[in-house]
């Protein structure tokens, strides 16, 4: 088996554009996570990975539930706050409320509440599969992370959107 240098692997993976999320669980507890993806439509499943030493991982394993706050453009400050050890993550400047029994950030671009479906060992991380029990979203450009920099999809605001009359007509069918 060929071994790849960890520093070079990290440098290459830094070029992969990743969503920026804050994963939360009751307590409240939360942390910034970029290893999040949708996994299945039927049943609706998502996945998120945590370092085995993560304090949040321990809380999620204990409660069996977690929420994923999908951050939007301009929420870099929240991402940094929830990534900083010892920070007061849910105090002062963080607007949040409880939704479906989990902490939800008020201005997040999207929200997914999950029951822990299964845990898979994956090297120095654990991969959690969450069964989606509730969700919501707003029309905000997503916050993404690549090359150790926050940004957003460059043409998100320019994408074509159907007229509201088209949407109403589609609902009436």
UniProtKB/TrEMBL annotation:
Pfam families from the UniProt entry: Flavin_Reduct
Domain Flavin reductase like: 13-152
PANTHER family the record matches: FLAVIN REDUCTASE (PTHR30466), FMN REDUCTASE (NADH) RUTF (PTHR30466:SF1)
UniProt entry keywords in alphabetical sequence: Oxidoreductase
Name assigned to this protein: Flavin reductase family protein
Native source species: Amycolatopsis iheyensis
One Gene Ontology MF term: riboflavin reductase (NADPH) activity
Domain of life assignment: Bacteria
Lineage, opening ranks: Bacteria, Bacillati, Actinomycetota, Actinomycetes, Pseudonocardiales
């Amino acid at each position: 088996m060929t071994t790849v240098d960890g520093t070079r692997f990290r440098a290459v993976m830094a070029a992969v554009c990743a969503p920026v999320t804050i994963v939360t669980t009751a307590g409240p507890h939360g942390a910034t996570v970029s290893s999040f993806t949708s996994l299945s439509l039927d049943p609706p499943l998502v996945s998120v990975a945590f370092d085995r030493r993560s304090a949040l991982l321990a809380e999620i394993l204990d409660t069996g539930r977690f929420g994923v706050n999908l951050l939007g453009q301009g929420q870099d400050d929240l991402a940094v706050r929830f990534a900083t050890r010892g920070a007061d993550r849910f105090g002062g400047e963080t607007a949040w409320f409880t939704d479906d029994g989990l902490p939800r950030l008020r201005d997040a671009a999207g929200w997914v509440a999950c029951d822990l479906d299964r845990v898979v060992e994956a090297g120095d991380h654990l991969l959690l599969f969450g069964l989606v029990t509730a969700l919501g979203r707003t029309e905000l450009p997503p916050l993404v992370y690549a090359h150790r920099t926050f940004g957003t999809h460059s043409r998100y605001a320019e994408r074509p959107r159907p007229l509201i009359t088209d949407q109403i007509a589609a609902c009436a069918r």
